[in-house]
């Protein structure tokens, strides 16, 4: 490990946007902690990073569990290095119209996105403050602007934006920036599951969505990993508290 190697944590990194972000940050020179619910599920991403010459560690953790988060972050610090980059990416959907939505559907979505981002950030910030340098990137969504069938998810993703802006205020003087990325439609197992729930073939679902997107295609995980790479990089030190919509067109 060179003196300059920094450690990044990516949550929900066993697949989808998180996995691509973990691979990208490893290419950028970070040692990467690949966190997800099941440690074994992290192994393919870790193996890929190591095979490409990088350093990585898989850690099983439920980001909504206070004790599990505390020990996972400690383990990353001990085994990989003090984490000074955190990407809060872990997420779930439990879509339903308001009148049918159960308390369990509401709570699970709020817990993973908001409680999870809070617990992870609280645990990781001390390493950033000690290093007088840190980068936090939180995954929001275009659903923050409202989306039928997603009162829980849209509330969580709008909450992530407020959370991010407050982190920017509190942590800026310690050399820590916080930004949010709000993806539009990205091709992952999450959107494949949405297609299945709607009884649609994924290819047809992608085509239908692409027709509503100004750049005329759906997004891929690399579109988001590129934005994360910018926010955590040296060039973005004066960018904090922002929400970047990566959605193939304008959103407001
Ligand atoms: N795919 C999209 O179109 C899209 C759009 C906007 C925002 N997002 C957001 O981007 C992020 C990644 O989405 P994705 O499409 O890659 O989803 P995905 O379902 O493919 O992957 C999410 C990962 O998070 C993990 N995870 C879920 N709950 C967890 C928990 N409690 N603790 C630890 N890990 C947990 C899952 O096991 C999974 O590996 C999410 O926050 C999602 O809300 C996705």
From TrEMBL:
<dbReference type="Pfam" id="PF13561">
    <property type="entry name" value="adh_short_C2"/>
</dbReference>
<comment type="similarity">
    <text>Belongs to the short-chain dehydrogenases/reductases (SDR) family.</text>
</comment>
<dbReference type="InterPro" id="IPR057326">
    <property type="entry name" value="KR_dom"/>
</dbReference>
<dbReference type="GO" id="GO:0004316">
    <property type="term" value="F:3-oxoacyl-[acyl-carrier-protein] reductase (NADPH) activity"/>
</dbReference>
<dbReference type="InterPro" id="IPR020904">
    <property type="entry name" value="Sc_DH/Rdtase_CS"/>
</dbReference>
<dbReference type="InterPro" id="IPR050259">
    <property type="entry name" value="SDR"/>
</dbReference>
<protein>
    <recommendedName>
        <fullName>3-oxoacyl-[acyl-carrier-protein] reductase MabA</fullName>
    </recommendedName>
</protein>
<dbReference type="InterPro" id="IPR002347">
    <property type="entry name" value="SDR_fam"/>
</dbReference>
<keyword id="KW-0134">Cell wall</keyword>
<keyword id="KW-0964">Secreted</keyword>
<keyword id="KW-0560">Oxidoreductase</keyword>
<keyword id="KW-0521">NADP</keyword>
<dbReference type="InterPro" id="IPR036291">
    <property type="entry name" value="NAD(P)-bd_dom_sf"/>
</dbReference>
<feature type="domain" description="Ketoreductase">
    <location>
        <begin position="6"/>
        <end position="184"/>
    </location>
</feature>
<dbReference type="GO" id="GO:0032787">
    <property type="term" value="P:monocarboxylic acid metabolic process"/>
</dbReference>
């Amino acid at each position: 490990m060179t003196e300059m190697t920094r450690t990044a944590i990516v949550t929900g990194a066993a697949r989808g946007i998180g996995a691509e972000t973990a691979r990208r940050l490893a290419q950028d020179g970070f040692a990467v902690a690949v966190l997800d619910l099941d440690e074994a599920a992290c192994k393919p991403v870790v193996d890929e990073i190591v095979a490409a010459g990088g350093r990585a560690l898989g850690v099983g953790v439920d980001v909504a569990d206070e004790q599990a988060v505390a020990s996972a972050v400690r383990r990353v610090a001990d085994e990989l290095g003090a984490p000074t980059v955190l990407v809060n990416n872990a997420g779930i959907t439990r879509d339903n119209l308001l009148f049918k939505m159960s308390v369990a559907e509401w709570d699970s979505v709020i817990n993973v996105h908001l409680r999870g981002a809070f617990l992870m950030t609280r645990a990781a910030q001390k390493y950033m403050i000690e290093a007088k340098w840190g980068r936090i990137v939180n995954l929001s969504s275009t659903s923050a602007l409202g989306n039928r069938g997603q009162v829980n998810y849209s509330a969580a993703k709008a909450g992530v934006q407020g959370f991010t802006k407050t982190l920017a205020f509190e942590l800026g003087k310690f050399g820590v920036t916080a930004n949010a990325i709000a993806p539009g439609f990205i091709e992952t197992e999450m959107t494949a599951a949405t297609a299945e729930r709607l009884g649609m073939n994924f290819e047809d679902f992608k085509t239908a969505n692409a027709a509503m997107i100004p750049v005329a295609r759906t997004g891929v995980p690399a579109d988001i990993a590129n934005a994360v790479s910018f926010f955590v990089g040296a060039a973005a030190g004066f960018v904090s508290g922002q929400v970047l919509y990566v959605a193939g067109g304008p959103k407001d």
